[in-house]
Each structure stands twice: as structure tokens, then as C-alpha cells.
């Protein structure tokens, strides 16, 4: 379920370019930050209708719709001339596509694995690290040597092909497991453990998006080059590639809830102890690797934790 996720991880490269160019003269830094947050918030807000559509039509039609929406968002963004067009394309449309792919696929691994559930989730989530690593190094050179428009189009073509292959290969066990697939279950909000899980997810993702979209811009603010700033995104994804399977294995061995709590604390401490004091490229590379390894704790553990809670 991470074949679509690496586009989250590379928006920081586009953000750094937008902030230092005059591609959209009427836009402010707040506009670009909001586009990134809109991308993510739409993906999550679409969960109830995506669940209902999946129950009615099945996973594959909903996810294929998401494939077209995400790829179409990148292609549409490549032709954007005004900032509101970027809001609709690189913000809302890509977010819609991601949500329609991610939400139906979330529970699939938990249906197939019981004892090694977190390890399976970690291996699957590491796919976003591979994609993010490739695009983290490739996006800025594409923008510099070809153009912003073609960088977005190439990204759209690649995500369309990879996502379509993944969607065609996915298999669930709904016929055996028979999940309820409710769009919104209000009665769950009466459970204390569910409220704690939701609170943890809200706080973790608030910090996740801030770090993910701010790292490249921070690098530029301390005088690093665009290539160095974009490479930090790539190193963050390298950390993701290495860390997620390891954390998945550790979660199965030491307990998912305990490990999620400790890793959340470790990620917060790394920001104060490594990121904030960093003023040169080397420490930021180290921070990118460390934070990349533990940053996506939510993605690795939310499905197993939800099944456990």
C-alpha cells in the first residue's frame, strides 16, 4: 500500500523550487505550504466515501479511479499557469487519487498476516522509500535540465504505470474475513483506546507533514544549494527504506504499541538534538537518515494497531 506514497515524500523538492522561483508570481509561501497540506488532507478526508465505494464496487475499481486521478493531477499541474490551478491539480486532485488508492488498500496486509503483521507492513511501506529515493534525486535535475512542466509529466507517467501494476496485482480476503467496511462508525468513539489511538495519529501526522515539507526549504534558508536541498529528501527516503522493515520486525517482537510510543518520542528528540542545531550539510544528511528511519512510524503501525485495538 505504498506504491502511491512516495509522491508525499517528494513534494518538498517542488516546494523548494516554488519558493525560490517566480513560477507563480502571485503566490506566497503560505500558498505553497497549503497546497502540500491540501494534498495530504484530501487523501485522508476521502476515507469515509472511499470506504463506502469500496464496499459497493470493490477495491479494484476504486483504486483504478485513484490511479487516474493522481496521474491526472501531475499532468494537470504541469500546465498550470495560475496558483489556483495548482491548488486544484497538485493539491486536491493528487490528494484525491492517493486517498482512493490508500484507503482501500490499508487493511489488505492485516487480512493476510497475523503473527508478522508489522513486518509485512514495514516491508510494504519501504516501497515509498525506494520511490522517494529515486524521485528525490531525479526531480531537481529534471526541473533544471528539462523544465518544471516535464518533471511533473514524467512523474505522472511513472506513478500511473507503477500504481496500475500494483492495483492489478492486489488481492484481498474480504470473502473470508467479511469486514464491515463502514464509512464512519460513531460507536467506536466511545472507546477510550480508540480515542487514544486517534489522538496519537493526529499529533504524529501534524509533525510528520511539517518535517517532510520543511526540510528542503530549511536547507535553502541556511545557504545550501538546490541540489543539496533535494538530496536531503532523497536521504530521508533512504532512511525510510532501511528503517521501516526493521521497525516492523521490532514491532512484532517487542510490542506494537510500546515501540510506536518510544519511536514517536525518539523522532521528537531528534528534531531538538540534531535538526535545530544543524547549520551545515553533513549533520542534515545524518538527521535525514535518522528521521527517515523513524518518521513514518504511523504508516508502519497504524493498520496493525487498528487491528489490535
UniProtKB/TrEMBL annotation:
It is found in: Membrane. Pfam families: MFS_1 (PF07690). Belongs to the major facilitator superfamily. Monocarboxylate porter (TC 2.A.1.13) family. Keywords: Membrane, Transmembrane, Transmembrane helix. Residues 1-309 form the Major facilitator superfamily (MFS) profile domain. Its main location: membrane. It is a multi-pass membrane protein. It comes from Cryomyces minteri. This is Major facilitator superfamily (MFS) profile domain-containing protein. One of its GO terms (molecular function) is transmembrane transporter activity. InterPro entries: MFS, MFS_dom, MFS_trans_sf, Proton-linked_MCT. The chain crosses the membrane at residues 32-50, 62-80, 86-107, 119-138, 150-171, 192-215, 259-278, 284-305. The keyword Transmembrane applies. The keyword S-adenosyl-L-methionine does not apply. One of its GO terms (cellular component) is membrane.
Amino acid at each position: 500500500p505504498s506504491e502511491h506514497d512516495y509522491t508525499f515524500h517528494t513534494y518538498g523538492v517542488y516546494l523548494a523550487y516554488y519558493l525560490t522561483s517566480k513560477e507563480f508570481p502571485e503566490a506566497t509561501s503560505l500558498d505553497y505550504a497549503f497546497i502540500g497540506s491540501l494534498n495530504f488532507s484530501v487523501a485522508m478526508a476521502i476515507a469515509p466515501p472511499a470506504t463506502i465505494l469500496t464496499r459497493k464496487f470493490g477495491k479494484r475499481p476504486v483504486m483504478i479511479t485513484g490511479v487516474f486521478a493522481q496521474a491526472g493531477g501531475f499532468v494537470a499541474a504541469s500546465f498550470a499557469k495560475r496558483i489556483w490551478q495548482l491548488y486544484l491539480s497538485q493539491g486536491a486532485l493528487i490528494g484525491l487519487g492517493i486517498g482512493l488508492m490508500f484507503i482501500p488498500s490499508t487493511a489488505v496486509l492485516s487480512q493476510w498476516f497475523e503473527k508478522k503483521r508489522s513486518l509485512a507492513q514495514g516491508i510494504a511501506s519501504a516501497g515509498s522509500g525506494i520511490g522517494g529515493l529515486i524521485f528525490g534525486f531525479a526531480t531537481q535535475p529534471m526541473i533544471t535540465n528539462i523544465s518544471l512542466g516535464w518533471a511533473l509529466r514524467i512523474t505522472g507517467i511513472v506513478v500511473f504505470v507503477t500504481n496500475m501494476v500494483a492495483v492489478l496485482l492486489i488481492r484481498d480476503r474480504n470473502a473470508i474475513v467479511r469486514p464491515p467496511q463502514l464509512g464512519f462508525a460513531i460507536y467506536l468513539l466511545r472507546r477510550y483506546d480508540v480515542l487514544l489511538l486517534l489522538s496519537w495519529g493526529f499529533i504524529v501526522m501534524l509533525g510528520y507533514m511539517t518535517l517532510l515539507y520543511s526540510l528542503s526549504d530549511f536547507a535553502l534558508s541556511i545557504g545550501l544549494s538546490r541540489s543539496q536541498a533535494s538530496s536531503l529528501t532523497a536521504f530521508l527516503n533512504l532512511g525510510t527504506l532501511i528503517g521501516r522493515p526493521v521497525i516492523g520486525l521490532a514491532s512484532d517482537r517487542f510490542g506494537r504499541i510500546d515501540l510506536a510510543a518510544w519511536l514517536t518520542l525518539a523522532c521528537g528528540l531528534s528534531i531538538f538534538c540534531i535538526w535545530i542545531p544543524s547549520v551545515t550539510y553533513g549533520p542534515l544528511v545524518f538527521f535525514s537518515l535518522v528521521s527517515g528511519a523513524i518518521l513514518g512510524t504511523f504508516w508502519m503501525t497504524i493498520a496493525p494497531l487498528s487491528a489490535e485495538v
